[in-house]
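Q: Convert this sequence to C-alpha cells.
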Amino acid sequence: MTIEHPVDEGHDGDTAASRVVDLGAYIRNQRESAKLSLRNLAKLAGVSNPYLSQIERGLRKPSAEILQAIARALSISSESLYVRAGILEEREVDPDVESAVERDPYLTAAQKTAVVEMYRSFRRLHELEEHADEAVAGAHRPNPLRGLIDAVTTGDVDDADVAASTAGDEAADEA
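A:
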C-alpha cells in the first residue's frame, strides 16, 4: 500500500517536504499554546478538520489564503507562516539605516543621536510586541503593550522638549 504525499517536492524535495513538516509542527504548537482543539481551530480558520490535521502532520502544503486564515484564527502573524512555508523569504533588516543617519549632512549631532535612538526604540517595541502577542495568543486577551506602542507610533512627542534638548547640543556643536 502506497500513501500519496501531495507535497510539491520539485528539485529540492527534501527541503520542501521538511519545510511543510516544520510548518505543520509550528501550527500545532501554536494551536496547543492557544489551548484550541483541532476542531475549534479548523472552525475558526474555515477549513475542515481532516485538512487541518493533514497540514499539522506535514502531509499537505496549504495555500497562502489558508495560512492567512489559520494565522488570523491563532492571532499570529501571517508573514511568519508564509516564511515557514517558503512562500516568503525572511526579511533582513537593512543594517545601513544608522549609517545613513550618521552621513546626513543636514542633521546636527544631537538630531542624529535622537533619530538613531528612536529607530532603535521602535525596533525594541516591535520585538516586545511580537513576544507579547505570542504570549497572549492563547488567552485571547489584548496585548498589554498595544497602548504604549500606539502612543509612540502616533508621534505624541512634545516638540518643545525636543527643541529645548537639541538647542543645547547645537550650541556645543558650534563651539
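The chain is about 65% helix and 0% strand.
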